[in-house]
Amino acid sequence: MRTPKVILLALAVAAGALALPGTAGAAYSDPLTTTTKQSLVWHATPAAALTALDNALPNVSLNTVVNDTSYDMTGCTAAEKASLPKAPVATKAMCWDADRAGTTTWSPQGITTSGDADNDGKWGEDKVILSGWHGTDALGRYNDARIQAINYNDPAKPSYRMMYLGVPNSTGSSFSAAQAHMGGMAWYGDKIYVTAEGSTSTAIRVFSTKHILQLTDTTSNAIGKTSGGYAAYTYKYAMMQIGYYTYAGGTCSMSSDTGVPCFSSMSLDRSTTPASVVTTEYFSDQSRHGRLYRYPMGTDYLLAASSGTVAATEAVRSSVGNMQGVLSNNGKWYVAHSSATINGQLWTQTTAKSSSATCGTGTTACWAVHPEALTYDWSTGLVWSQSEWSTADCTAKNQVCGRAVFAVPLSSLAA
Question: The whole model's pTM is what?
């Protein structure tokens, strides 16, 4: 979804539109326009491979994971609070422990909650928030992926456990790291969808809470079968991919807004019948205008497919630049814009209008600093998001900011 930060900042500065709507004959306040739909193709992990791993290792529930937490969320520092939206104001906020707040080897991106997953807003008896992170160049395993599963049963004392994401080999004798930038997430039933990588043919990876493995080797700095059992870089749990979607058009392009799109973010829309997954694409080049797509759910919490092909039911183009997050509810689209230096923007869009909250002297730069994905918890009426930059990133750029997980009421967003 993103180019490396140094390049990203240079491109954003050169574009001259870090937070100001309107370049290349288009303004952020322009309404959505319809565009060409794009199809996806489903590829399932062999059932025998999943069974083999389930038989080789303890298979645990997500409830087990979120009730076996290893880190506590914290209150937010002054710098982290500075990353929260100015308008609308966050009604919920929590921050990471010092290691996660400061690390430059992992970066937070997508987010989803049990409000997506189940009709009662919980997963079993637990209220859960899932935060998706990808490995950076500093880790040495770029776009390895993990989920930080937050137990939110008591909002005053949230805590979490980290899970690695893995891909079984064809026989299930071992597994490798799933490659995903994690720019967006959607959770429906037992299926957890994550956006993959740019400039590849893989669009979305799908994991299942029915295939969470408790690893037997938690000391090896390796992944898959080891001499000591099965490992995922010392993590206790790994969740397995049960399939993935490719772009029907082939390899996607991160430099063209007319070719095959590279999905940068994603979320679930429960307001449609059936429920649907919506996606967007990201361009640092302000002359490119990202497209938004909708794909309906079918059976077994997978996207509706005919002969393996998933057809989009809606495709529109937005004039908002640097789109980091996307949400849709009751016919409205919401997209989050990011700036390299100041607060981002959150725009409410339809094919008739586009509007954003204003703050201060009337600027629309009122959203979070370095914002990421969006998700809507229908059971609470809250839109959740998170900010990306670590305290180290912020300090290096002489910015007052940090990582936070926060929520605002959907009702407080621009009409």
Answer: 0.95
